[in-house]
Design brief:
The chain is built from three helices and nine strands. By secondary structure, the chain is an alpha+beta fold. The longest helix is centred in the middle third of the chain and has 32 residues.
Length: about 150
């Protein structure tokens, strides 16, 4: 039986592929779980339409990300924090703090798009990357200074 995969299925295929599976596997697992549709002419036409819509949305999102990248590249953000001995911060600088500081400069970015391994806990200059799209990134310089 041939089915159209609606989701990525491990060891079977990726979304949008037409794969051949045993009828029981399709009837009892793939179709009820919403992972696949029977490969009929109507479903194939619907799939092509959905793929065109998704591709148009991806292109639009990429163009928006490129516009934001132009504004964000090379931006410097200064974040004042209280510090103790050896330039250690009493708190830490998180993604949300950086996103708030960017908003003060009228640059809106979701804090989830900032790539940061761990919170910043010392004074200094840090370089962060913002992943705006799958293949679009921007570099942001963060200055953490003492109050």
């Amino acid at each position: 039986m041939e089915v159209i995969l609606l989701e990525d299925v491990n060891k079977l295929g990726d979304m949008g592929e037409i794969v051949s599976v045993k009828p029981g596997y399709a009837r009892n697992y793939l179709i009820p779980q919403g992972l696949a549709l029977r490969a009929s002419t109507g479903n194939l036409a619907q799939l092509k339409h959905q793929q065109q819509m998704v591709e148009a949305r991806r292109i639009r999102q990429r163009n928006e990300a490129l516009g934001i990248q132009g504004k964000l590249n090379g931006v410097s953000v200064t974040i004042p924090k209280k510090s103790g001995e050896n330039d250690k911060l009493y708190g830490s600088v998180t993604k949300r703090d950086i996103a708030t500081a960017l908003e003060a400069q009228e640059l809106t970015i979701n804090s989830k798009k900032l790539l940061m391994d761990q919170p910043i806990k010392e004074l200094g200059i840090y370089k962060l990357t913002a992943k705006l799209h799958a293949d679009v990134t921007a570099d942001i310089r963060v200055w953490v200074v003492a109050i």
